[in-house]
Amino acid sequence: MSLRLQNKVAIITGAGRGIGAATARAFAEAGAIVVIAERDTTTGPAMAAELKSLGAKSLFVETDVAESAAAVTVAEATLGAFGRIDVLVNNAGINVFHEPLETTEAEWKRCFAVDLEGVWHMCKAVLPSMLAQNAGSIINIASSHSSKIIPDTFPYPVAKHGLLGLTRALGIQYAARGVRVNAIAPGYVETDIARDYWNTFPDPDAERQKAYDLHPPKRIGRPEEVAMTAVFLASDEAPFINAASIAIDGGRSVLYHD
Ligand code: NAP
């Protein structure tokens, strides 16, 4: 029996740690060839080495998704090494949280450069080869912030709302040409990005507990839980799922609050 992603070539951005790292491991276990497109030159190569030690084919390409030239480089390196690109997981993202009027222009630009433009750079770089082979799956890691607003987290939700728009626009545009574009919208997930946010409060443990209490199962998500959904969307088990967003938040997004 073949594995769910047998020999599929996948690029995963920001795969050095957190959700991206869990996704890289899950993809490799499912039989994929994984290209680690990561800006960190310590965690990125370490992840590629880990996957190789498990018997998977993997390649690290130093990539800052904010640079469009870097996106082209990683796409070319992938095609050069493996001949095709079947899957792109746009996972790299940063939290930029401010009160709106206190947001500097530099902070606004930093947020959009990674969380929205970075995704577009990567899509632009891989789409020609996906369209040429009439097949491809792009998975964008969005957020609960893609559909809801939490005060003082500006402009992150603006970029993440835009990411849903980008997902839908590209999903519709290329649906008849074999390319599916979907989003995953996690609630809180236990990674550095969440821990760093709690650490901005005087009592980080209280903030962590608040995050747990926000989710109906009274816990937050695990990176592996996002990774499993990415494997599904990348696989041939989801051929009619397109321009969709799948929430992974224990039901938080449908819970009524007054
Ligand atoms: P994380 O632990 O901070 O990991 C993010 C990874 O992306 C890091 O390896 C980071 O590299 C890399 N990265 C950041 N900017 C990059 C860039 N410009 N180019 C290439 N790589 C870059 O974050 P995470 O929690 O795994 O988050 C992953 C995604 O999930 C993000 O898009 C985030 O918005 C989304 N998300 C997270 C949560 C959550 O609660 N954790 C919830 C909803 C959505 P460095 O090590 O160099 O920083």
TrEMBL record:
<dbReference type="InterPro" id="IPR036291">
    <property type="entry name" value="NAD(P)-bd_dom_sf"/>
</dbReference>
<keyword id="KW-0560">Oxidoreductase</keyword>
<dbReference type="InterPro" id="IPR020904">
    <property type="entry name" value="Sc_DH/Rdtase_CS"/>
</dbReference>
<protein>
    <submittedName>
        <fullName>SDR family oxidoreductase</fullName>
    </submittedName>
</protein>
<comment type="similarity">
    <text>Belongs to the short-chain dehydrogenases/reductases (SDR) family.</text>
</comment>
<dbReference type="InterPro" id="IPR002347">
    <property type="entry name" value="SDR_fam"/>
</dbReference>
<dbReference type="GO" id="GO:0016616">
    <property type="term" value="F:oxidoreductase activity, acting on the CH-OH group of donors, NAD or NADP as acceptor"/>
</dbReference>
<dbReference type="Pfam" id="PF13561">
    <property type="entry name" value="adh_short_C2"/>
</dbReference>
